[in-house]
Design goal:
- It is a single chain.
- By secondary structure, the chain is mostly helical.
- The chain folds into 2 domains: about 55 residues, no CATH class; about 45 residues.
- The chain contains 3 helices and 3 strands, in the order E-E-H-E-H-H.
- Strands 2-1-3 form a 3-stranded antiparallel sheet.
- The longest helix is centred in the middle third of the chain and has 36 residues.
- It is elongated.
- The chain binds zinc ion.
- The site of zinc ion has 8 residues, from helix 1.
Length: about 140
Amino acid sequence: MEVLCEEKDCKEEATTRYQWPWGDEGIVCDGHRGHMVQLAQQLGRDVAFTPLHTTTPAAAPTESPELRLAKAKLLEQEQLLHEQAQTIADLRAEFARSVRAGRFAAQVDSDVEAPTASTDPAESHHATPSPPTKPQRSR
Ligand SMILES: [Zn+2]
């Protein structure tokens, strides 16, 4: 069963029952509730709202303890990550300041000239000779 907003020309689903101190009452959608709050402020009066329970919004599915735990862990890790990212940002800023101040100039230079990792040819001997599937016609 769907109840529509009672405001003029409004086709939205009513979600709230309102009641003015002088007795006027009805049901409105979320948008018109906002209007009504503004109107109440302009009038300097209070309008009472009661949520309608005609349609219960999709209830939160019951979570298994495992899922809840996983969520909590995830949240915790995200928080940790956030803090560490902040620390890294702080350290970078501190480092940049130091470099500009000329304190670590020597280290930065030696970092740049670090030898590049050479590919070890001994590691690329994974090409195993496959048995010939076709007779080779080499003469
Ligand atoms: Zn409405």
